[in-house]
Design brief:
398 residues, mainly alpha, 2 domains, two-stranded antiparallel ribbon, 18 helices, 2 strands, transmembrane, Surface polysaccharide O-acyltransferase-like enzyme, acyltransferase
């Protein structure tokens, strides 16, 4: 296989579109809440309508979409370049856990700086220097900042990759996600109702999430199996055109109906949130709709016969970076704007613009610094760069 960089036309632009959508949606989802995390509870229903509807819209592409994308790419990588279990785990540990530890350290510093600015930094510093469980939580649960749990969760899911590979040959195994999500809900309710220790509760809930989210690994591999047979948008698959078209129509129809059902539930919940001023997390079937919508979205984008613009491929490599840096942009905006922008809709729209533009600018800046580009997945790790620097220069392989 050639090691030359892929041209924009050779890229899977539909997958790039999903990566951009996932990264931007995570930012906008966080930016569409009030500074205290509420749906602008103090505003009138009309005043919070736009922020809640935007939150609902962007909540369609949750971190579960990133999981499906990542595990789809892992299935593709292993199909094109088979490796042993140890090699895969070592590779993924370097790609996921090393940047994760770096960003944990960064966000500890950010939290301390924010705390000292707001008057509670000395309490956080005292806790950091006296309570080991805080650091354990940062490293195992990823609770140092919003959605930093994604990296240790994804790495834990990668450990089960031999299981997912069965779904490449048998895509129907992706349906196992449904009973696993039902099991997740039942186990979560048992933990919430039966465990009083809040620390133990958090670790048990995370263990349940990882065990049941193996279903997303099966889904990612199942979609890769369908991709091999049908191709993207019904083009380029290994099956003959008639057989491929039948599978494409069947999967598109099923996922389209799933998406419509999820949207009906999600916007019903949004109406309840607008009226009540609370998140209405117990709205019937809302949790299932949130967890299944990313699956429907991935499959629809993969199989729909759409033509994506080439610039999507230029934005996609920064998706991991904007995911990692966006919390500090949200914190900065909160410091600048809280109490100054009183209209919920204006606050949210300004926050979204600032956070998306700032996150891309910061990710681009990091990518241009060789010593830091690895922190957002766009360069070799420092020790790999040093080893490469001690070797004689060779012509690039073709």
């Amino acid at each position: 296989m050639s090691t030359a960089p892929a041209s924009p036309s050779a890229r899977l632009l539909w997958l790039d579109a999903l990566r951009v959508l996932a990264g931007v949606s995570i930012i906008c989802m966080h930016a569409s809440a009030a500074p205290d995390g509420s749906p602008f509870s103090d505003a009138t229903p009309a005043g919070r309508a736009l922020p809640v509807l935007l939150q609902t819209l962007f909540y369609m592409a949750r971190t579960e979409l990133f999981l499906v994308i990542s595990l789809f790419l892992l299935a593709m990588s292993l199909h094109r370049r088979p490796r042993g279990y140890g090699a895969v785990i070592a590779e993924q540990a370097q790609r996921l856990l090393v940047p994760f530890v770096f960003w944990v350290a960064v966000y500890v510093c950010v939290n301390l700086a924010l705390g000292y600015h707001l008057g509670w930094g000395h309490y956080l510093l005292r806790a950091l220097t006296s309570q080991a469980e805080i650091w354990i939580g940062y490293l195992l649960l990823g609770d140092v900042k919003q959605h930093m749990h994604f990296l240790p969760t994804l790495f834990a899911l990668v450990l089960a990759f031999p299981l997912y590979r069965m779904a490449v040959a048998r895509p129907a195994l992706g349906l196992v996600l449904i009973p696993l999500l039902i099991l997740k809900r039942q186990l979560n309710m048992a933990v919430w109702g039966g465990i009083e220790d809040p620390v133990a509760t958090q670790y048990l809930l995370r263990a349940i999430r990882i065990a049941t989210y193996t279903g997303y690994g099966l889904v990612g591999a199942a979609f890769y199996g369908i991709f091999l047979r049908v191709g993207a948008g019904g083009e380029g698959g290994s099956w003959d055109r008639a057989r491929s078209a039948r599978l494409q129509r069947a999967v598109l129809t099923s996922l389209g109906l799933l998406a419509l059902a999820c949207l009906w539930i999600k916007f019903g919940q949004a109406m309840a949130v607008i009226q009540s001023g609370t998140w209405s997390r117990n709205y019937p079937n809302a949790d299932s709709a949130h967890l299944l919508m990313p699956v429907a979205l991935f499959g629809l984008v993969m199989l729909a016969p759409l033509r994506w613009p080439g610039w999507i491929g230029r934005l996609a490599p920064y998706s991991f970076g904007i995911f990692l840096v966006h919390p500090m942009l949200l914190d900065l905006f909160r410091l600048i704007a809280e109490g100054r922008i009183m209209t919920p809709s204006l606050y949210v729209l300004t926050n979204i613009g600032f956070a998306v533009a700032g996150s891309y600018a910061l990710a681009l800046a990091l990518s241009r610094v060789p010593a830091l580009s690895w922190t957002i997945g766009l360069g070799p790790l420092p020790w790999a760069r040093r080893r490469a620097g001690t070797r004689p220069l060779a012509a690039p392989s073709a």
